[in-house]
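Appendix B. Raw example, untouched.
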Amino acid sequence: MWGLVPLFWPLLKPAGAVEILAHRMVWSLVVVGVALLALRRWGWIRELMRSPRKLGLITVAATVITVNWGLYIWAVNAGQVVESSLGYFINPLVTIALGVLFLKERLRPAQWVAVGVAAAAVLVLSIGYGRPPWISLVLAFSFGAYGLVKKKVNIGGLESLAAETAVQFLPALAYLLWLGSQDSATFGTEGAGHAALLAATGIVTAVPLVCFGAAAIRVPLSTLGLLQYLAPLFQFGLGVLYFHEAMPPERWAGFSLVWLALTILTWDALRTARRNRAAAEALATAAATATAATAATAAMATAATAAAAHRARSGAATGHAAEETGDTTVSTPSAQPGR
């Protein structure tokens, strides 16, 4: 669905990018609100309202995703689908760079190589475009910052989207009302079909996110990471094959370097996951062996204790029987003469 979104935004013309963005914010809150009402998931709101820090982070997340959404809509409708797809191709590399800068994460050698190759790709593409690929860079860094903030907030995907669109709702609604007062709004003036498409921006926003949230708890992280490349791949294909955007040799060279960087990154991630899984299995096996050995030792000790106790009881019983036998032997002869 994310990969096919470039086919949707042009359908909303003659609405401009900012008007489309405002409708997306308003209708997304409506759709998410209905979903939360159906699921009866409201308890998180009270907890969120009691945390000024989380409210501040939600506001930051809403701001950066507004930049991301607005620029993407504008870029697609301005015929920059290929450059937009590049932003989501390099997003994993930007996320790694943000992790190093803000979370003090340490990179493995292969990750450094991937980041270096990506930097070379940006340089080649800058030469090809005659300017830095600013659309790609802003999309990648805004979405990377969005992911970083959401990591700090740490609430569910649906709840997070509801909180973010709640922050966006009033400014977006105010802008739409202002457009209407200026007779510049297209909602309702371009027919019922166009109005329905503008309202559908909420569904287009919410449904892929809900699906992603559902998949995230069911699919291994390595598989999920690989599937994330499908969206920019579809977008790139649409830009080249459907929208017929130009791809001179230097752009192909730049994209090839990006794909090489992603290949290195994916290979390193899969290799690391495999090593971690093997180490975890070895640790689990060692723990199970140690537990079995401890259990066997305990069982042997218990058996030995039981045997010793049995011998002690047997010895005591034998001694007592001997005493009783001795008493009878002595008393019997003295009894016989009495008969």
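End of appendix B.
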